[in-house]
């Protein structure tokens, strides 16, 4: 099984010789069976794709794709919108769009990548909000033409991660911190008619708490800040009192591309201003100290298709010491997220690399129906979570191609 590692963050250069800027080291694959793909989707010109082969002495090459940022923007917006529609009505169009995007973005280099076991990608502009897991691998790269997440492990990379110097050795008593808000507010498009038709009882006040509690699968002591305890003051108190190695945040989060100070964690949706934690590098760096090799999960982030992706949150938590971040492009209903993260944390606890663990958890939603226990002597209900809404919006971010390895 090949692996696909996707590099995020702003692309401020093309390659050495284009603007004279040397290629940053975090783009360079260390071994020959890895290649980096860098998409420069600057406005007003065709998208440029730089291919960086792995191995010593390998030289990058650049080609121009037959598309522009302006042409890609409506396609990205449409596939995001379709992913939020109730299945199965939108599925056929998602597949067709996924085929088109796969042919445009990967087709020109598919033959060169057939023998490559892992890919590292960087994308800016509208591609920063594209759910890459939902595009389809061209058949010249994958004979079955499946969703990319079915055939590849996706790992977005941001060099801001792991940049903060913490203790030389891991803390002796690391903990997992679970944060879930007091009010459960389902997204605008919940699971759909199949859920209500099946008679599933929505445990509204428990849903996000159940999701956050899956962090217990890691086997570390869990510090829970749920409900009324999910306040900015208690959050800061917890991060100052404990060596946090894993942090799961199951609250709503927003990105304001026009004002970095407007991006925030919303601990109680009913009290936005009073319960908001601003998410800027300075704010988190001053109030949050994460243990070395820490993982942060932001399961309720909504990037809104602004063309910045989860970057502001990834950068801010990177400044606070996080070495890896899982972030969502849109808030996913908590009942299915509970199943996904239960599988994810179980795999991480077993020694699976975080990027591979996320891919395995996403693949489970694609492959097997979810089983919901209704309690009160009622029969469990099965629900199909294979629609991209449930799995395609999650991304794993690491600091470099080597860190994703």
Give me a quick take on this structure.
With 405 residues, the protein is of the alpha/beta class. The chain folds into two domains: 3-154, no CATH class; 174-394, 3-Layer(aba) Sandwich (Rossmann fold), CATH 3.40.50. It has helices spanning 69-83, 91-105, 110-113, 148-151, 193-197, 207-213, 232-241, 281-287, 311-319, 334-349, 354-367, 388-391, 401-404, and strands at residues 3-7, 34-40, 46-53, 61-68, 118-123, 156-157, 174-180, 222-226, 243-250, 252-254, 264-266, 276-278, 290-298, 301-302, 324-328, 370-372, 381-383, 394-398.
Question: From the helix content, strand content and strand pairing, which structural class follows?
Answer: alpha/beta
CATH topology of the largest domain: Rossmann fold
| Overall structural domain count | 2
For the secondary structure, the number of strands is: 18
At CATH level 2, the architecture of the largest domain is 3-Layer(aba) Sandwich
Number of helices: 13
Please characterize this protein's 3D structure.
The protein contains 13 helices and 18 strands. The protein has 405 residues and is of the alpha/beta class. It folds into 2 domains: 3-154, no CATH class; 174-394, Rossmann fold. The strands form 4 sheets. The protein has a 7-stranded mixed β-sheet, sandwiched between helices. A hairpin with an 8-residue loop joins strand 16 (370-372) and strand 17. The relative contact order is 0.16. The model is unreliable at 10-18 and 183-205 (pLDDT under 50).
């Amino acid at each position: 099984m090949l692996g696909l590692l996707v590099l995020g963050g702003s692309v401020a250069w093309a390659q050495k010789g284009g603007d004279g800027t040397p290629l940053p080291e975090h783009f360079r694959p260390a071994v020959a069976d890895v290649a980096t793909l860098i998409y420069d989707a600057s406005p007003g010109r065709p998208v440029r794709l730089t291919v960086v082969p792995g191995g010593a002495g390998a030289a990058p090459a650049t080609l121009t794709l037959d598309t522009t940022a302006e042409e890609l923007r409506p396609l990205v917006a449409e596939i995001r919108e379709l992913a939020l529609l109730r299945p199965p009505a939108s599925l056929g169009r998602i597949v067709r769009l996924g085929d088109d995007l796969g042919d445009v973005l990967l087709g020109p280099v598919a033959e060169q990548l057939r023998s490559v076991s892992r890919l590292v990608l960087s994308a800016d502009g509208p591609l920063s909000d594209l759910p890459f897991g939902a595009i389809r691998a061209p058949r010249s790269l994958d004979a079955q033409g499946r969703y990319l997440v079915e055939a590849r492990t996706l790992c977005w990379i941001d060099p801001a991660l792991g940049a903060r110097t913490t203790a030389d050795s891991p803390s002796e008593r690391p903990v997992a911190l679970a944060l879930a808000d007091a009010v459960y507010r389902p997204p605008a498009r919940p699971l759909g008619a199949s859920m209500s038709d099946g008679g599933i009882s929505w445990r509204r006040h428990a849903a996000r708490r159940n999701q956050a509690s899956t962090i217990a699968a890691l086997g570390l002591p869990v510090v829970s800040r749920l409900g009324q305890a999910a306040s900015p003051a208690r959050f800061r108190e917890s991060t100052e009192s404990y060596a946090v190695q894993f942090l799961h945040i199951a609250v709503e989060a927003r990105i304001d591309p026009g004002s970095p100070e407007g991006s925030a964690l919303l601990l109680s949706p009913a009290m936005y201003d009073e319960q908001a934690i601003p998410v800027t590098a300075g704010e988190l760096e001053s109030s949050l100290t994460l243990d070395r090799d820490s993982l942060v999960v932001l399961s309720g982030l909504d990037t809104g298709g602004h063309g910045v992706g989860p970057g502001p949150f990834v950068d801010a938590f990177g400044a606070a010491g996080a070495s890896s971040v899982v972030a969502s492009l849109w808030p996913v209903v908590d009942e299915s997220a509970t199943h996904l993260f239960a599988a994810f944390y179980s795999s991480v606890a077993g020694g699976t690399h975080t990027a591979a663990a996320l891919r395995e958890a996403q693949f489970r939603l694609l492959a097997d129906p979810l089983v919901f226990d209704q309690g009160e002597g009622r029969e469990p209900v099965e629900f199909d979570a294979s629609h991209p809404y449930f799995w395609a919006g999650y991304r794993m971010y690491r600091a470099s191609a080597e860190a994703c390895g």
